[in-house]
Specification:
heterodimer; A: alpha+beta; three-stranded mixed β-sheet; 5 helices; B: 315 residues; mainly alpha; Formate dehydrogenase/DMSO reductase fold; globular
Chain lengths: 190, 315
């Protein structure tokens, strides 16, 4: 059976330390000035002294219905056998249609290869060796869980079956494979 | 700003810049000018059709030249301009861009073929007599080429709208009316450019019969354009949420000025105001050229407004 790789970001556990951001840059040799993964820190929310922040992971959402794959004129953006949205940099002409079409704005032009680039769950390196993506391994608070949602016994299946989760901009019908467990603490949006 | 999470410049929602707006303008201009030229030729003409009319000659020049300039814009805007051939050999037919490439691949050579047919008597005058045998060889196929080119021109004119309306991340772009708006404003640019070239390059008289027929199209085309703009904005308003928020582009920032001064003031206002002038004045060469240039400026401003304001608001 095909794998359905998903990632879960538990926003209660995240502390916004950016270890994932740095590990990603190092693992994937991401050039200076561009980023595959950021955790945006929003807030503070609440009344002092009970202040808290919210943490929003910004990276490729690995949509099951990916606008970038649909709009790519040459097929340089495609789903691999396990559904991971992948870029064939040799087929990319750099028209930026995918960069414009991505609702999450997580695609960028790699200044070295001149091709579109983004997170691919470390599929050519760590995933190929059977390891978790760099961001998942490095997270000090275990806020990230990665695995095959088609396997009912996997950690991700158990989490998605037991915790409330949401996906970013689900109203656009993109069906992201990044799930988020919302923070338990509320906060009034200013 | 120095965030702990790093550089934010790549997340700027405006991805496509003025080069793309100029390309959208030139592609619409090319298609619009050929549609007007061929359409008027098909509509009953009272004068002898053995001789090519100046407005059609103008369209025959603008059609291929504008599309080539537009494609040059497009290619040099790629991050890998010298790999552009990849887009000609790899096709993803789910992508509007790939379908557009295919349409342009047929449209561009046909526009050149049609130009040679229409301008066959002018080629020797311009030192291109070596093309005359090709023009004569193509002449018997004129009806076929003309028909195909007309259909492809509708495709090219509308495709520029479909290209950007396919992105559901941008509420102002992701509307059904955009391809129609682009097609109609392309017609308005095409008619304007045809009259400029007919007057300046092919020495049309200001009272030329064909020029007059084309001139009578301008107000109805403009009325449809205004209607489509109204439909676009009311659709955003009633959709609410991020779509309604995008309407702020009409009241704030640089692109509000581009819209109200460029599109409305110059593009619609100047031609309409000139209609109030006495007939003798408004049918002077200078007045006709001013009106045509105002229309062209308006359409160019509209492309810029849609590209920039459209990408500035994300849902």
């Amino acid at each position: 059976m095909k794998k359905r790789y998903v990632m879960i970001h538990d926003e209660n556990r995240c502390i916004g330390c950016q270890a994932c951001n740095v590990a990603c840059r190092s693992e994937n040799s991401v050039p200076e000035g561009v980023t595959r993964l950021q955790v945006r820190v929003e807030g503070p929310f609440g009344e002092a002294p009970d202040l808290h922040f919210k943490y929003h992971r910004v990276s490729c959402q690995q949509c099951e219905n990916a606008p970038c794959v649909t709009v790519c004129p040459t097929g340089a953006a495609y789903f691999d056998d396990n559904g991971i949205v992948t870029i064939n940099k040799d087929k990319c002409v750099g028209c930026m249609y995918c960069v414009a079409a991505c609702p999450y704005k997580v695609r960028f032009m790699n200044p070295e290869t001149k091709a579109a680039d983004k997170c691919n769950f470390c599929k050519d390196t760590r995933l190929a060796r059977g390891e978790d993506p760099a961001c998942v391994s490095v997270c000090p608070t275990d806020a990230l869980t990665f695995g095959d949602a088609n396997d009912v016994n996997s950690e991700v299946s158990k989490l998605l079956n037991t915790k409330i989760s949401y996906q970013d901009k689900s109203h656009l019908g993109t069906q992201p494979r990044i799930y988020r467990i919302p923070t338990k603490r509320g906060g009034i949006q200013s | 700003m120095n965030n702990i999470w790093g550089d934010m410049t790549q997340y700027e929602p405006v991805t496509w810049h003025w080069v793309i707006a100029v390309y959208l303008f030139l592609a619409g201009l090319s298609a619009g000018s050929l549609l007007i030229g061929i359409g008027l030729r098909w509509a009953k003409s009272e004068i002898n059709s053995a001789q090519e009319v100046a407005t059609l000659k103008a369209a025959a020049v603008i059609g291929p030249v504008a599309i080539c300039l537009g494609l040059a814009c497009l290619i040099f805007d790629l991050t890998k301009p010298f790999d552009f051939w990849l887009i000609l050999v790899n096709y993803n037919f789910e992508s509007v861009m790939a379908i557009g490439v295919l349409a342009l691949l047929l449209y561009t050579p046909l526009a050149f073929a049609y130009a040679m047919i229409v301008l066959r008597d002018d080629l020797p005058k311009w030192g291109m007599a070596f093309l005359s045998p090709i023009a004569m060889a193509l002449l018997p196929m004129r009806k076929l080429i003309e028909g195909l080119l007309f259909v492809l021109a509708i495709g090219v004119g509308a495709y520029t709208g479909f290209l950007i309306s396919a992105m559901n991340a941008y509420p102002m772009l992701n509307t059904a009316v955009l391809p129609a708006l682009f097609l109609v404003s392309g017609l308005s640019a095409g008619a304007a450019a045809n009259s400029v070239l007919a007057l300046l390059m092919f020495n049309s008289d200001v009272h030329d019969f064909e020029l007059g027929r084309m001139h009578r199209l301008e107000v109805p085309v403009m009325a449809v354009e205004i209607l489509f703009l109204l439909m676009l904005f009311s659709a955003l308003y009633f959709k609410g949420g991020a779509a309604a928020a995008a309407l702020a582009s009409l009241s704030t920032g640089l692109w509000a000025n581009v819209f109200w001064i460029g599109v409305v003031g110059i593009g619609f206002g100047v031609p309409l105001l000139f209609m109030l002038l006495p007939a003798a004045t408004r049918h002077s060469k200078g007045a006709m050229l001013t009106v045509a240039c105002a229309s062209l400026t308006g359409v160019l401003a509209l492309r810029h407004f849609i590209v920039y304001a459209g990408q500035s608001y994300i849902s």
